[in-house]
Amino acid sequence: MAAESAVTTCYRHTKVESHVRCTRCDRYICPNCMREAAVGHQCVDCVKEGARSVRQARTAFGGRITTVPVVTGVLIGLNVLAYLAELVRPAVVDSFGMLGRGLVGGDGTHYLWQYPYGPDVHAEGLAGGEWYRLLTGPFLHLPATETPFGIVHIVLNMVSLWSLGRVVEAQLGRVRFLALYLLSALGGSVLVLLLAPDTLTVGASGAIFGLGAAYYVMARRLGYDMNAVNRYMAGLLLWLLISAGFASWQGHLGGLLAGGTLTLAYAYAPRDGRRTLVQAGAGVAVLALLAVLTWAKVSELTGGAA
């Protein structure tokens, strides 16, 4: 009598009889574990291992290729949510808008800064330790309840953010784009602190000017037709001059400088294994510079008590 042949089973489902082997690891696999390959079938584990070994496609600036502007959409959503909070509670602007120095009394009345100040008031703004205003201010906008320009302010900024953000995000990838946006916003706040510390400012314009600078740098690096790009930048700079009469030109210029500086590092970092390190280092350097400038100015405003 012939010996009964051994039954082979799937290596993942040991109770399922199987007669097909993975072409990569040669283990038996059942139909649920089979994945089509160029030749034959592979198991789930080998397919995962192969995916890890495949080099991911990157943009010209080292970011992962993405077709959906997720970060841009999230940033717009955060700005809109902050604006809705302002409508419900207008005091949000006074509490979270960008302000270098100010005084507030026990009844909530705001006063211009003087140092030293009496016991009936206390410091507010960065001079009062409210460093979070550097980033919360750029997510707020002029309240519609106080000025007709309020709703126009946020609408224009969000339209600009959508137009520029989805282009820049597609080129930089999500992580680099988010770093660019936040550092541009921070750069705008820091220049406001340095040049107009007594002025309460709000708006995403500084970050958007940073995106505009990034768009210009990337266009030159990629060899775009610069005629249209130059016209766009001329319009942006013209708006910078016009807005000086009624908006925070310091915030606009600070965002422009921070965004442009960081994007130069993104665009001209060596295209080898050092690229990510150089780009990350540039981001840290910009952040460190802004932090030092902020600390120095707040120390000056508070007589060294920062």
TrEMBL record:
Single biological process term from Gene Ontology = proteolysis
Gene3D superfamilies attached to this UniProt entry: Rhomboid-like
Pull one GO CC term from this UniProt entry: membrane
Name the membrane topology term: Multi-pass membrane protein
Which keywords are on file for this protein?
Hydrolase, Membrane, Protease, Transmembrane, Transmembrane helix
TM regions (residue ranges): 65-85, 147-165, 177-194, 200-217, 229-247, 253-269, 276-296
Molecular functions per Gene Ontology: serine-type endopeptidase activity
State one Pfam family annotation: Rhomboid
Q: Does the keyword Cell division apply?
A: no
Indicate the segments forming the Peptidase S54 rhomboid domain, all copies: 129-265
Q: Which family does it belong to?
A: Belongs to the peptidase S54 family.
Record's protein name:
Rhomboid family intramembrane serine protease
Q: From which organism does this entry originate?
A: Streptomyces shenzhenensis
